[in-house]
Amino acid sequence: MLGLGLAGVAAAALAGCATESVPVRRLRFATGPQGGPYHAFGRALAEAVARSGHRLDVVPVATSASVDNLRRLDGGSVELALAMADAAQDALLGRAEFSHPVPLRALARVYVNYTHLVVPAHGPVRSVDALARRPVATGAAASGVHVIAGRLLQAAGLTGDRAVRERQLGLAESVAALRAGTVDALLWSGGVPTPALSALARTLPLRFLPLDGFVSALRERYGSVYTAVTLPAGAYGLREPVGTIGVGNYLTARADVPEPAVRELLHVVFDRWRDLLRDVTAGARLEPRFAISTGRVPLHPGAVAYYRSVYG
User: Mind telling me which InterPro entries this protein's record contains (predicted)?
Assistant: First the structure.
């Protein structure tokens, strides 16, 4: 019995040594601007991975968000990236902001962005059409917000001599500009509620313009990445729901990230999804049946293996 016990201890020790000898896989993660929801998700994921015991090290990298993230993924300066579904599809197909196809792979659709078109409640703008020739904050350059803003404005016929005067500003700068009156509207795509907009609504009465009437035109031209969703009553002090445009957010990776690393990462994502989404979008859930819905962007083989092993 003693011999068997000693043998068991030795085997456990050897197993522990083997685990310690496995090198830590470093994964640089392109997120978004400091203080924004993508960067908050990246920080939360890095912290969750560090506490998980997995031999992974996730390093968040602050960026301009979706388009910038996918370019970095293609260039090899990061292994992971968050991106809005429309930008990810463009990258895969090598169109719009991308000069060639980017061989990205999806790990999960992590949550849905809601498109916000916000104007002062007591201002002159009461419809999308009324934005013609007015200054509008349309998101930072190389961001997913800027992509959907351009497509929305085109679908609304705000082009040519009716084009808005675009101001390429990030969320914090957009909020400051709307408060100061240097823009008449801001466009944003994010979770509900977005804390920066909730804070603005407490000091400046806001109107959220309905956008669901443009979903069909966007889907006809760009595919199913766009869906009809609703800003719920109560959010931002809204008395009634407001229809708008939804766009998924994908956690993506380079195709050459090893399968075991992807499986381990997804274990953490699904174990700690509440922590990951807490500061990003209230009330959202991460469920496998939605997580695997990544449109034309194929799942990474490691993601396929994870979903099959856990959910059959």
Answer: TRAP_TAXI
* d(C-alpha 254, C-alpha 93), whole Å: 15
Count how many domains the chain has. 2
> Which one of 197, 215, 247 terminates a domain?
247
Which of residues 247, 265, 296 is at a domain's end? 247
Q: Whole-angstrom Cα distance, residue 82 to residue 87?
A: 10
Phi-psi region of 265 (alpha: psi -120 to 50; beta: other; left: phi over 0): alpha
Report residue 126 CA to chain centroid gap. 29
Name every residue whose Cβ is closer than 8 Å to that of residue 128 and which is 6 or more positions away in sequence.
117, 152, 156, 158, 209, 211, 214
Instruction: Write out the residue range of the structural domain in which residue 172 sits.
Output: 114-247
pLDDT in tens, 124-165: 999 999 999 999 999 999 999 999 999 999 999 999 999 999
Angle at 288 between CA 287 and CA 291, to 5 degrees: 85
